[in-house]
Amino acid sequence: MQWGSLSDFFAMGGYGLYVWTSFGAAALCMGGEVLLLWRRSAAAAGNHDGE
Amino acid sequence: MSNTGINWFKYSSPQAFHLLAGRMIPWFSVVSIGLILIGLYIGFFVAPTDATQGDAYRIIFVHVPAAWMSMFLYVIMAIWAGIGLGLNARPSFMMAQAIAPTGAMFTFLALFTGSMWGKPTWGAWWVWDARLTSELILLFQYIGIILLRSSIDDLRRADRASAVLALVGVVNVPIIYFSVKWWNTLHQGASVSITAAPTMAGTMVTAMLVMMFGFWMYSIAVTLARVRCVIADRERLPSWGKQASMADVAEAR
Amino acid sequence: MSQPSMSEALRGVVRRDLLLAMRHRSDVAMSVFFVVIVASLFPLGVGPEPAVLRMIASGVLWVTALLACLLSLGRLFTADYLDGVLEQTLLIPQPLAVLVVGKVFSHWVISGLPVVLLSPLLGLQFGLSGDSLVVLTLSLLLGTPTLSMIGAIGAALTLGLRGSGLLVALLVLPLFIPVLIFGAGAVTNSLAGVGSEANLSLLGACFLLSLAFAPWATAVALRIALE
């Protein structure tokens, strides 16, 4: 393990802002896509209850 | 109305496809989450700090897989579009339609994380490098395909027109890549070499590949989920072809 | 009754389109005027330094040419589509791609050729001289037909859609980029004293590539639009 402490880990050797913004954006985009699809398919399933 | 719709639907291949996709989604989701978690662990806790770039290089664990998926998905989308045009197969048009938003999302992500990586390593948020420029054009093409589809009301025409555009775009992106690359060698002003990547430790490559497979499985899961939505949306129409009235189509959207 | 040969059909399409254009001469004049105005705006915006103007000349004039082509794309098929001629054209026994070539050629004569002829004059405004003026004209001569070819695909795909004017721009501009890079690059190279032959031959290659694929893709798109 190369990180001495938790704050070391979040600092990312001074590049924390860039690294965490990137990974945050990835999580946001992918999570958001899943959430949107979830809602869309739930809405579609709701419309097909009568099947 | 729903009776005739379902009756028709039961004997069509989209119905089987809908079921099959539904069964496959959980598997791909689980594998994808597992791979991404393993990739993140290797990327953050096993891979060493890079000698020249420090810890900023860790952005590649999300940047490179996203960039790779953006191009890969475009090619896959174009292949589905081509199959759709060639065989006049509706499910393959639906696959092409389902892939486009995910591809656009990864393209955006690749550009965004690229500029996050670029700022600390080359000191600029953006350079007119061949890779960046082609990635930007790729995003424009994804958006163009999505916009073209959404502005055509007739589903059959929307499918086929966006398929033609996807195929035309597949020729365009490599040409842009090479033209900008060549253009850059003449404009020596911006002489940042992005291709000269630092020599990567084995664990770095492993983390990147694992993330890449994780993103791949994610794309499959998300595409299948979207294709199910697309099928469900279209199934609500009394029929697929031109007989669908404008009002039905508008409602289905 | 013998069918007209392919070249006869091609000539027929070109003659008809040019004749129609001559009846609406103000349309042609408008696109020429547009190019002149846009090109004249840049020096006013950037400032009159000759060195700066010479540096941006190739890019500005080429982008202006792209815009002029784009603005006239709406005319390529729309009139024929609205009065039903296009639907009749699909029934003609000659391959549709050949007729598309005819229509694209007349579109280029109406919208591209005036820009090419005007370009030395516009180049002078930007302080280009001698060789660079020749290269500018040559690059436009080689590049603008390619723009019309590629633009025809977009025009056919968006035929009859609401807001098609804006949509065609979004679809087609990314496809124009290689031509822009090679065309503007040719002029920049000749200004820098490097040979511009490579750029010009790449423009030629783009033209041949688009000549091989674009009419065919346009024909497919037209059939899709008119189904």
Question: How would you summarize the topology of this molecule?
Answer:
The complex is a heterotrimer of chains A (51), B (253) and C (227).
Chain A: H1 6-11, H2 16-47
Chain B: H1 2-10, H2 13-46, H3 60-87, H4 90-122, H5 130-150, H6 155-186, H7 202-235, H8 246-252
Helix pairs in contact in B: 2-7, 3-4, 3-6, 3-7, 4-5, 4-7, 5-6
Chain C: H1 6-23, H2 25-46, H3 50-72, H4 74-82, H5 85-90, H6 96-125, H7 131-157, H8 164-192, H9 197-226
Helix pairs in contact in C: 1-6, 2-3, 2-6, 3-6, 3-7, 3-8, 6-7, 6-9, 7-8, 7-9, 8-9
> How much β-strand is present in the residues of chain C?
under 5%
Please report the distance between the alpha carbons of the first and last residues of chain B: 18 Å
How many beta-strand runs of chain C? 0
Shape of chain B: flat
Summarize the helix and strand pattern of chain B as letters: HHHHHHHH
Q: Which ranges of chain C are low-confidence, i.e. pLDDT below 50, for 5 or more consecutive residues?
A: none
Structural class of chain C: mainly alpha
* Low-pLDDT ranges of chain B: 1-11, 188-194, 238-246
Distinct helical segment count of chain C: 9
The radius of gyration over CA of chain B amounts to: 21 Å
Q: Nearest-angstrom radius of gyration of chain C?
A: 18 Å
Tell me about the largest β-sheet of chain C. none
Describe the protein.
The complex is a heterotrimer of chains A (51), B (253) and C (227). Chain A has a domain of 35 residues. Chain A is 75% helix and 0% strand. The model of chain A has no long low-confidence stretch (mean pLDDT 83). Chain A is an all-alpha fold. The termini of chain A are far apart. By secondary structure, chain B is mainly alpha-helical. Chain B has one domain. Chain B is built from eight helices and no strands. The longest helix of chain B is centred in the N-terminal third of the chain and has 34 residues. Chain B starts with a helix and ends with a helix. The N terminus of chain B is likely disordered. Chain C is mostly helical. Chain C has one domain. Chain C has nine helices and no strands. The longest helix of chain C is centred in the middle third of the chain and has 30 residues. Chains in contact: A-B, B-C.
